[in-house]
Design goal:
Layout: H1 2-21, H2 29-34, H3 36-55, E1 67-71, H4 77-90, H5 107-118, H6 128-145, E2 154-155, E3 182-184, E4 208-211, E5 220-221, E6 237-238, H7 245-251, H8 254-262, H9 267-275, H10 289-298, H11 315-331, E7 360-362, E8 369-371, E9 386-388
Parallel strand pairs: 1-2, 1-9
Antiparallel strand pairs: 3-4, 5-6, 7-8
Protein name: Di-copper centre-containing protein
Length: 389
């Protein structure tokens, strides 16, 4: 027992030193609940990433050209409007897939096709975080190269709206929003059309019908849901939302976001916490977790469709926040957090090999081809050059 105690003592000392190296990440619960702790670790992560960039700039990324992604409400109104107009521009640009049915009509739609094809491989798998990092960045690049957007790419920090998603500047129906809630339906559970897991097991939100006010009231969802006989067939309909403050508060609060990051010593548990992956006992307390919480806080059609949720314009702000959490987690201990964990199939069904950083992610014709290793560093210049505010 003496040897065991000695080893345990050494382990605790090592953990203590580790905590000091990470900037002593023990916060009072009130700071975790309020978001003060999240602000602190976010600032630390940004500073650490910029310090690495200052020390080792690349040909494609340096302190003068690094982009700073910002929370929606921290972007000036005219810039938010410009962002929304760039999204609408993608909705009028030609789709890029050949040999698909007549459903997809635009470049914006092409992102939905890509997500539909890759969904079983890039959720609850080794590829989840890095695929979505490239996916969102590629969307940003199209906004810039195809539609002339020059502003900051926005993310949505859900916890700031946990008191009322309907009143969020993202959903308030103003000209500087991304449109309103859907019309209120006379039902307690409109559910979701294509079913994020669990989508029919809780009450609906405060809308459920077509977006009523502001941007995207005239946006046509061209195909889906994934439960249709031919999910890619033309099926025109309005954009529906069913905003749900209760779900946002329960699963995507500032507390949940912060503790998801702080309670994850390795990449396997971090992505399990993020997705509520019940295969990890520690992750079960998160329910559907911040990933599901953010999606379900929007819900509707196609926002509640597991395969076609990118046809909801705010998908990219939601997954921008997911990537922000990943960025923070990585940059709190960069040397130890350039790793991957998991297999190459969703929930390892069917059973499959482990993913590796040398595996290739090919998202043509929407985007390019990269190894997952190239996607680890947002200031690595291959292909990225951005940090989060």
């Amino acid at each position: 027992m003496g040897l065991v105690k000695k080893l345990l003592s050494l382990a605790l000392v090592g953990a203590s030193l580790r905590g000091m190296a990470l900037g002593q990440l023990d916060f009072p619960q009130e700071d975790i609940d309020s978001g003060k702790a999240l602000q602190s670790i976010s600032a630390t992560a940004k500073a650490n990433a910029l310090a690495r960039l200052e020390t080792a700039p690349t040909e494609g990324c340096n302190k003068d050209n690094v982009r700073v992604r910002k929370e929606w409400r921290n972007i000036p109104g005219p810039e938010r409007t410009a962002y929304r107009k760039a999204v609408e521009c993608l909705m009028n640009a030609p789709q890029v897939y050949e040999n698909v049915t007549d459903g997809p009509r635009s470049l914006f739609d092409s992102f939905g096709v890509l997500h539909y094809y890759l969904t079983p491989a890039v959720h609850n798998s080794a590829y989840f975080l890095l695929f979505h990092r490239l996916y969102v960045w590629t969307f940003e690049e199209k906004l810039r190269t195809e539609c002339g957007y020059t502003g900051a790419f926005p993310y949505w920090e859900w916890g700031l709206d946990a008191g009322s998603v309907e009143n969020s500047p993202l959903f308030d129906g103003s000209e500087t929003s991304m449109g309103s809630n859907g019309a209120k339906l006379n039902t307690s559970n409109p559910g979701s059309p294509g079913g994020f897991p669990g989508g029919g097991f809780f009450g609906g939100g405060s809308g459920g019908g077509c977006v009523t006010t502001g941007p995207f009231t005239n946006y046509t969802v061209n195909f889906g849901p994934n439960t249709a006989a031919n999910p890619l067939a033309y099926n025109p309909r309005c954009l529906k939302r069913d905003l749900n403050t209760q779900i946002c508060a329960q699963w995507a609060s500032l507390k949940n976001t912060t503790e998801t990051i702080l309670e994850a010593p390795d990449i396997a548990l971090f992505q399990a916490n993020l997705q509520g992956d019940f295969r990890w006992p520690e992750a079960r307390k998160w329910g559907f977790a911040v990933h599901g919480g953010g999606h379900f806080a929007i819900a509707g059609d196609p926002g509640g469709d597991f395969y076609f949720s990118p046809l909801e314009p705010v998908f990219y702000q939601h997954h921008g926040q997911i990537d922000r959490m990943y960025f923070i987690w990585q940059n709190l201990d960069w040397e130890q957090r350039q790793t991957m964990a998991g297999t190459i199939t969703m929930m390892n069904m069917p059973a499959s090999r482990n993913g590796t950083l040398d595996d290739v992610l090919d998202i043509r014709p929407v985007g390019g081809t990269h190894t997952y290793r190239e996607l680890l560093d947002t200031v690595g210049g291959s292909p990225f050059c951005f940090v989060y505010e």
